[in-house]
Amino acid sequence: MLDAVDHMSPRPGTANRQGYSSPVPRPQLVTFQAKYMIVIMCSVAVLATACSSGGTSSSASQMSSVAVVATSSAPTTAAVTTTSTTTTAAVTTTSTTTSVAASPTRSQCLANAPVGDLIGQLVLATITEDGIAELAPRVVDGTIGGIVLLSDADMGISQAIEPLYAASIPPIVGVDEEGGDVQRLAQVLGYAPSARRFGDRGNVDSTFFAGAERGSGAAALGFNMVFAPVLDVGRSAGLRSRSYGDDADTVMTQGFAYARGLAAGGVVPVAKHFPGHGSTGADSHLGLPTTRPLADLEISDLLPFEAAASGPDAMTAIMIGHLVVPDLTDGLPASLSAAAVAMLRNDYGFDGVIVSDDLTMGALRKWTIPEAAELALIAGDDLLIAGGMRDALATSERLVAAVDAGRVSRDR
Questions:
Q1: pLDDT (tens digit, 9 = 90+) per residue, 241-251?
Q2: Which pLDDT tens digit goes with each residue over 366-379?
Q3: How many CB atoms lie within 10 A of CB 82?
Q4: Is 357 a catalytic site residue?
Q5: What count of other Cβ atoms lies within 10 Å of the Cβ of residue 233?
Q6: Has residue 76 got a pLDDT over 80?
Q7: pTM for the predicted model, two decimal places
Q8: What sign has the CA pseudo-torsion 230, 233, 238, 244?
Q9: Which residues on neighbouring strands pair with residue 78, listed in sequence order?
Q10: Region for 391 from its dihedrals, namely left if φ exceeds 0, alpha if ψ lies in -120 to 50, beta otherwise
Q11: Catalytic residue at 273?
Q12: Would you place residue 169 in the very low, low, confident or very high pLDDT band (cuts 50, 70, 90)?
């Protein structure tokens, strides 16, 4: 995860297809293809059993296998050396033959994996600093794929996080850290201004360097994913100062500068909340919002997410929100809608990781958390934020049962 930045030479800004200019030189974000991200998160436990050479189960051996699996679906090879000795009346001849045996492909490894090992890596638990110690064993054994910190951290946060990295499967260690009203690291890293503050200032360099400082600070504490920037356009309920501005140009210019900074600091930024809360009249923490018609969203609200999906500002991960879009989601929240996911994937060309918004929010009270998680997975979400430890474990159990019952395909 911490290698999510390609430190290339800075390149001059260019205008994207929406016509806004990104004037700040930046390190490019590496957009991982979703299938490779999922393999990185899911495959190590498989490699430790079905794909390891010589039966080793050490973390080092498992981690070395990930690099092979994540970059190629072709079979890997293992050298096998045999030595034979032949003795005649006067001459002893020794010959050594080395043969190469093919290791299983990525697909073969995943096909042999226990469903529970794979499902667990799709589920993230929300947690407080005090709760990490109790959850850590479930992350280490692969039952849960990682955490999202949703409470204020203190100076003990690094020590609390450290045991998570004993997991053979690299965990996601995320934090909801936007700045302003939504920040968890202020007691450790100092106060971070709101997105609106950056938007009002209009200084892209300042926004980039603020993101880089926050990203490097979060990485030093042990986090590898930051749930920011907010790419919603406008000050709707639940957003207010969390949005960079009331127009798409400001949101894109400032939001992508902050994302580039986070990535330069060593963490994976997660853009949110597709397809955009800016025009809604309700707070999805409390209820299920409805946006303006899709045609209206395409004029403004969707522009930042189109740019985040592909092109020079393409993001590694995008969070999908709990909001109904007329003419698109058929009354379902976007997070549970295959049509919304298809729009992001097919229409906008996004090949990164789609993360659900927190499935415990009031917008989804119609469903239990495990039910919502199953619907989200079927719709096409890749990572599921499934509440605290009890809810996250129940979600994993539900998804395993869904695969066993054929409600969710193993390929998914």
A1: 999 999 999 99
A2: 999 999 999 999 99
A3: 9
A4: yes
A5: 29
A6: no
A7: 0.78
A8: positive
A9: 101
A10: alpha
A11: no
A12: confident
All residues at 6 or more sequence positions from 337 whose CB lies less than 8 Å from its CB, including other chains: 325, 328, 329, 330, 379
Is the N-terminal amide bond of 275 cis, ω within 30° of 0? yes
Tokens of 225: 């994913």
Q: Which of 176, 313, 357, 358 is catalytic?
A: 357
Place of tokens 């210019």: 253
In terms of C-beta distances under 8 Å and separation of at least 24 residues, what long-range contacts does 11-19 make, across chains too?
A: 14/312, 16/252, 16/307, 16/311, 16/312, 16/313, 17/307, 17/311, 18/248, 18/249, 18/252, 18/303, 18/306, 18/307
Instruction: Tell me the pLDDT of the chain averaged across its residues.
Output: 80
Q: Distance between terminal CA atoms of the chain? A: 22
Beta bridge partners of residue 356, listed in sequence order: 320
In whole angstroms, what separates CA 107 from the centre of its chain?
21
Question: Pick from 334, 381, 375, 379: which is nearest to 356 by CA?
Answer: 381
**Angle, nearest 10°, between helix axes 132-140 and 389-405?**
30
Selecting among 283, 285, 296, 351, the annotated active-site residue is 285
Phi, psi values for residue 110, rounded to 5°: -65, -35
Q: Say whether 183 sits in a helix, a strand or coil.
A: coil
Distance (Å) of CA 389 to CA 41, 121, 146, 368: 19, 14, 11, 15
Q: What is the pLDDT of residue 264?
A: 97
Class of residue 92 by CB neighbours under 10 A (exposed 0-12, middle 13-18, buried 19+):
exposed
- Which position has the token pair 């959850």? 135
Collapsed DSSP state (helix, strand, coil) of residue 308 = helix
Angstrom distance (rounded) from CA 157 to CA 149: 10
Other beta carbons within 10 angstroms of residue 251's beta carbon come to: 29
Nearest Cα residue to 199 out of 252, 278, 126: 252
CB 388 within 8 A of CB 125: yes
DSSP 44-102: HHHHHHTS-STT---HHHHHHHHHHHHH--SPPEEEEEEEEEEE-SS-EEEEEEEEEEE
